[in-house]
Write a structure and sequence with these properties.
Elements lengths: L16 E10 L2 E7 L8 E2 L2 E3 L6 H13 L2 E16 L5 E16 L8 E7 L12 H9 L2
Parallel strand pairs: 1-6
Antiparallel strand pairs: 1-2, 1-4, 2-3, 2-7, 5-6
Length: 146
């Protein structure tokens, strides 16, 4: 955990964090979770989280997917990176992540909301829930291209 500077405006040694998101398809539906915590609490997004030391991006995406949803998937190579910048209540930057998107193919499991997921479900790209995390529709579209 980074220590806050005396003015409580930013961490004393601010650095972006690397995270992974799992974009998993089953037939023509994509798996989404409703986030419990910041950034984007209460919004629908992809299962994911911080990449751990020594993990490949595919391994990290598979681990986060399992921890949040109980779903097993074969994860491909990363296909895109996205910035996640979110301000806190004081309008100062509170979260800075570089999220790596990894496409996955469903193998097994019944979707359940665990860990930091408030809800989970399979959705058609034409009938997505609201509210959505930023760039979600664009990420879905890019994941379908490969």
């Amino acid at each position: 955990m980074a220590l806050l500077a005396q003015n409580n405006q930013q961490p004393s040694n601010p650095k972006p964090k690397v995270g992974v998101i799992a974009i998993v398809w089953q037939q023509e539906q994509v798996l989404l979770v409703k986030r419990k915590f910041a950034p984007h609490a209460g919004h629908w997004g992809f299962p994911g989280g911080k990449l751990e030391w020594g993990e490949t991006m595919a391994q990290g995406a598979a681990r986060e997917l399992l921890e949040e949803t109980t779903i097993h998937a074969n994860m491909d190579s990363p296909f895109a990176c996205f910035d996640v910048l979110e301000n806190g209540n004081d309008d100062q930057l509170a979260h800075h992540y570089v999220m790596v998107a990894v496409r996955g193919h469903y193998v097994s499991g019944e979707a359940q909301a665990l860990d930091d997921a408030e809800a989970v479900g399979w959705f058609s790209p034409q009938a997505l829930p609201c509210p959505l995390c930023p760039d979600l529709a664009a990420i879905i579209e890019r994941s379908r291209l490969g």
